[in-house]
Records
---
Amino acid sequence: MNSTSQTTPPKQQLSELFGNYKAEWLHERMFDLFTQPAYLPDLEDHRPCVLMGGRGTGKTTALRSLSYEGRFARAKHDIAAIKSWKYFGFYYRVDTNRVTAFRGPELPAARWTKTIWALH
């Protein structure tokens, strides 16, 4: 152990080691390490649901596991398994620069809500 790690608080050491790590950097290897959460069947149900959790809790990873690529990897690349699938999911990463364009003082939140409901 070096002298720096002896003076750095453990919380800061952990943050430096793991704080900025993102599972999406693993690309397709992510599915080799994936552990199915207990709530995954609820996401596969026909009923709508809301997936909530703090940053880094696995929301995106769980949703990506439902994509075609994720399901195929979880099926150990067994082509025969595809025939039994009831759905084909896809994952699309939204450009956050475009999403943030919908924020701002130009239009109040009530107006956005009214516009969104009018689209349905």
Note: The helical segments are 3-7, 10-18, 30-33, 40-44, 59-65, 68-74, 96-99, 109-119.
---
Amino acid sequence: MIKTYRPGAIGALLDEYEKAIEDFVKAIETIPDSTLPVITDPRTRDENCRSVQTILTHVVHSGYGYAVGIHNIKGYDMARPVKMTRDTIKEYIDDLTKVFLFTENVFAEIKEDELEQFDDALKIKTGWGQLYDIEQMMEHAIVHVLRHRRQIEKFKILMGELDE
């Protein structure tokens, strides 16, 4: 099978985001639904990182947040969808697919020359207070998925040790 690449810088960002999500899905698809709510990291102060379920909920919600932020820089006033906790891996995989499709649709209105901005007034203010242009926001979105994939992989090792 020949891989088709989307054109340009926008295409590269979307291709890499899609690949990051595909790899994330591969990491979670074999996790039993019954283990989703199991607290795997009781010491973390981050409520989004205590269990596989909290991580997946966070990744989906954040994915919408990045895309909505990019969408709203075009003058829209869309709210990010409400954070939803799911009970099955299949539901989370469906949500991740929807996040990517939503992001892809957002980029239908973005032009290549809008990716990088040096004027702070044309940047997106993140929920954690930084200013990102569209390219930086998508780079963050990609790495966010990668970092949580790594975290899930570590959780899977810990969960395997708990079963023994």
Note: Residues 73 and 87 are 33 Å apart (CA to CA).
---
Amino acid sequence: MIGALMLGFLAGAIARLVMPDAFSHISGWRSWVLSTALGLCGAALGWLIFTDWLGIGDTQVFDLGGLVGAIIGTMILLPIAGYILKRTGTVQRLERR
């Protein structure tokens, strides 16, 4: 469990460095919580793409060997999540707090 959180945080942080504009409108700790959650989802998506569909890698979802897949999965999810947050008005509610 702790390893999955660390992998999600690391994947989210690296994806934020590569794609800094994805959550530029949300500042503070909320953006890091979102990045960590998206990092966990991105790790699952990366595992699904690389291990399940392409047959590359091992069968463990959250391991450091799958960090590249987790980062790629997070980079896929970041613009989608940013679009959804903007469309639903969640960004404005998060900015006011």
Note: The chain has four helices and no strands.
---
Amino acid sequence: MPEINVIFGTGPLAQAVMHALLKRSKSVKMVNRSGKRLVEISAAVELIRGDAYNLDFTRSVTKGASVVYQCAQPEYHQWVAQFPPLKASILAGAQPMRRN
């Protein structure tokens, strides 16, 4: 099975991670709210529209991922209120689901 790398965010940090992964011929998926492809994002990358605050979404988009990169961020003036739930959702979604 090919290694899948999921990057949350499509800003400058996410793009730097994307370029580094593509240089190593890795499979890359990037997630942003709009689903709009920025000019800087390679056509070889799968771009996924979604809400990283939604745990069900983060679980579905990270399923089978080898590595998850958290490069998403709210606007600076919203960090205090929005960063903790964003991080919590991505971390929880990236954890393998426990089976009973």
Note: The first strand starts at residue 4 and ends at 8.
